[in-house]
Amino acid sequence: MTMQGGVEDSEQFASLTPRRVVEELDKYIVGQDEAKKAVAIALRNRWRRQNVDPELRDEILPNNIIMIGPTGVGKTEIARRLSRLAGAPFVKVEASKFTEVGYVGRDVESMIRDLVDISVNLVRGEREDECREVAADRVEERLLDLLLPPLADGERGPGPTGAARDQDGPRTFVVGSSGAPQLEPVEGEGSLEGRRRRTREKLRDLLKEGKLEDREVEVEVTESSVPALDAGAMGMDGMDINLGEMLQDMLPKRTRRRLVSVAEARRILLSEETDKLIDMDEVVDEAVARAENMGIVFLDELDKVAGSRSDQGPDVSREGVQRDLLPIVEGSTVQTRYGMVGTEHILFIAAGAFHVSRPSDLIPELQGRFPIRVELHSLGEEEFVRILLEPKNALLTQYSALVATEGAELEFTEDGIREIARIAAEVNQSLENIGARRLHTVLTTLLEEVMFDLPDGEGPRRFRIDGARVRERLARIVEDDDLRRYIL
User: Fold this and answer.
1) Predicted model pTM
2) 60 vs 200: CA distance, rounded Å
3) Cβ 38 vs Cβ 65: under 8 Å
């Protein structure tokens, strides 16, 4: 997706109607229709905003959303899949990591800096894909120059045929009877340059066929003389200046020659050629515009900074975090390494279980910045059956693919799937409810022996998981409360 001046100009984005967005989300997330509709409308409103009168465009602000529901029901996945659909920069942060000034923790503006960094990487990745073919052609020519270096000035001179010759006659690469490239002196007719061109084309064919990947060549590598600086470790997490980049620009570059394989040289040269083809000023301009107009910030664990008002204790810091979040959410300007970035049109999606606190415990100003509230429902046995089967990345599909890499086959019967779902729902009810993540723990325990013995090739190569096998494998764990708490 491309943007010019902060305006989305993409047929793909225009085709993302709310109904289609929900259909795409249904491929990966089971249920939670209310939340899917809310985010689909919010995404479509971003496209609608870009198509209204410019005078009104800046006045239309996004309707931020609060998702209320227990862990493991799909809150994060909905937001992440939404950003992938739109090609939008996305960052997930935990509100509990932020603290007000004077307490240990990150400042709230860091999430906008992270969003812009992600946006720059996203746009740069798109530019790399666009120029990959041109860069690969340039790298091929440079590799050929390394494999068959050009003649030095002293080697050139008029010969019997008016061409350059060296004292011992022309030397070139030839292809032996085995097809492997060999370096041998060859006597030939015609000019030396003509023979070199023919040899170069032969090398080009060998290079494309991958027969020269292990041959060693000497390349010049630019190294940084500045050590990596961790601003966070130095207590400068809030600084907007990248000290490492400043020093690299000020100090001279240091180069050295390395003897590497053709495969490694291709990687090094491809990075160099890609850097030459990409205009980073253009990348930054587009990335900042995309972050400002399409960026999505997923603010998790918002309930952890909500609480009853108190004059002492941790609630002081909690309310301080809310007041620090307020200007970011309602719209302000944040200084980043790429310049000033406005947050007025960034979409904020907050989430929290809100078991102890409620959204009404947030300060009124912050509540008003999240006008859309949707509740996500707890998952039960029927939902677990669907989660195991329906999504494109369903857990059973993942495990079957993993087992197939060892040349084996994994088959789940209908009663086996229902038994897995029943046990996961039962453990969630009796222990902590961690939602669909419980399926991971149940399946890991169920298939532990299968996954352990697979590489040795002992026993059957076809595994059938039915209800009886599930009960046999998990019965002791489910019945033993102490063991269940430890394992599941």
Assistant:
1) 0.76
2) 61
3) yes
